[in-house]
């Protein structure tokens, strides 16, 4: 997995067919009736799992000095460390360095333009992320989950509702959008523009459309999301998007704030739910939707610079609520981090074939962690808990799994070109579930902060992310 890069890959999300009408899907025949996707912030795989037994991680990285590659020892840092690093597309390209993975020290800081130097070369001390390690050693950890793009949180959150950010056959959204106070997405100030990357990999900063699909090409009619498949199913699939509230604008990282018919329709209040802690009370009251996205408050997000260490406990509180409820035997919980956050990772991005590659939308990006918690999480080779998957996945793999679980068909983005995280008939099935095994009993995940802590926690009123 540490071989050099080769090129030539493309992505169907940017070809002649960037969008497909919903059609009949393959169906998974699985016992899963509910999917909960918990989205944490800005951590590379190595940053959280550098020393996890059996995983591909390292405490020694590589940097480029005077044109030569040198080894550098990674620093062990606290989760609440306030280092916040550049992780835009240009920073990704610098770190990637044509597949050599040795340019992280050459990334330039935002504002000053100074080199970040050794700052990206760090990992979080395991004692600060015990719940994550417990979940990984009890259920299933993906060792080769790559972000769809080498970029920031805005496109990543779009990828997690649709599998890609293509707005037409030659351009995709990438990097940040202007963030002014509490306003972004369809609520952005007049004149705000998205950034684009072309199929020729030309970066066009803030030369795209206003960040609301009504201003996209074809008025966004070709920018469908899972919401369109859910609403179009018969019967409709229930869904909720839990997100922090800022003022009266809804969630600052609500991906659906970009989707015009959601932002200006009844689903903005019926399906986009604030505060995000409502997920805990919905579970206990028997109101869990078939599909749930959960975006945390800034302080519980693991975002570098938040200065807190509550993220692992926040995730554990949701997992425990489901595990101790009526929903355990029918639920798949997926925990994923939205982008690399600027932190070092030793593994060159891979495409579905398992070969290093670049596609035509600025991806795949660097590795990010993904943990699957389910009574059907597979056992390892010793028939014990703690399965580590080496299958290559991307955010489209999650979308594909959702589509097949509810027999929805395909959106026609990267859901068509990637492995599902679940089993399928054919060559594109994944290994994060074993539906042939008896459901495993839930084991409570220990954590520093309790469910009650989060239910009584005052909101930070800070954006989950500014990038």
Structure description:
This protein is of the alpha/beta class. The protein is 18% helix and 14% strand. It has one domain (12-60, 126-164, 214-456): Alkaline Phosphatase, subunit A (3-Layer(aba) Sandwich), CATH 3.40.720. The relative contact order is 0.23.
Summary?
This protein has helices at residues 45-49, 89-96, 130-138, 153-162, 226-232, 260-263, 267-270, 278-284, 311-323, 395-405, 451-456, and strands at 34-40, 60-65, 68-73, 75-77, 122-124, 140-142, 145-146, 171-174, 195-198, 203-204, 239-242, 272-273, 291-294, 331-337, 370-373, 387-389, 393-394.
Q: Strands, helices and their partners?
A:
Layout: E1 34-40, H1 45-49, E2 60-65, E3 68-73, E4 75-77, H2 89-96, E5 122-124, H3 130-138, E6 140-142, E7 145-146, H4 153-162, E8 171-174, E9 195-198, E10 203-204, H5 226-232, E11 239-242, H6 260-263, H7 267-270, E12 272-273, H8 278-284, E13 291-294, H9 311-323, E14 331-337, E15 370-373, E16 387-389, E17 393-394, H10 395-405, H11 451-456
Parallel strand pairs: 1-13, 1-14, 4-5, 6-16, 7-17, 11-12, 11-13
Antiparallel strand pairs: 2-3, 6-15, 8-9, 9-10, 14-15
